[in-house]
Amino acid sequence: MTRVAAETVAEAPRPGMFSNARMHGDQFFLSGMHAGGPGGIVGGADPYLQAKEAFRRVRALTEACGAVVDDILVLRVYLTDIADRAVVGRARAEMFSGDFPCSTLVEVSALVEPGLKVEIEAQGVIGSHSGT
């Protein structure tokens, strides 16, 4: 497997903890992306803005793998409040065109940083997008 980085997505704060993205052949796997970082949470307490930032990071890593977002086949979305599913769904709909990826949505009690409301994992296959 090959580790992949995107210039606009921060790496793990401690090297060796995890990889943001890995590839195996034409398959790519993205760790959970969220809106947190050293400067605070992008979007503050707004779950829609947090989701937009998480999806931006998913897009950046997907493209760093040589894929397009429509090559993403599976999403796992973690919310700290299931009531946020509609606004997170709106951000998701703005990310994809054509067929949407398979998706799992679950509520969790907390994410890695206090104040985070959404985290998104993705995986796919380069070239799986049909373009129609």
TrEMBL record:
DNA-binding is among the record's keywords: no
Keywords from the named record: Hydrolase
Pfam families in the cross-refs: Ribonuc_L-PSP
EC number assigned by the record: 3.5.-.-
UniProt GO molecular function: hydrolase activity
InterPro entries, per database record: RutC-like_sf, YjgF/YER057c/UK114
Name assigned to this protein: RidA family protein
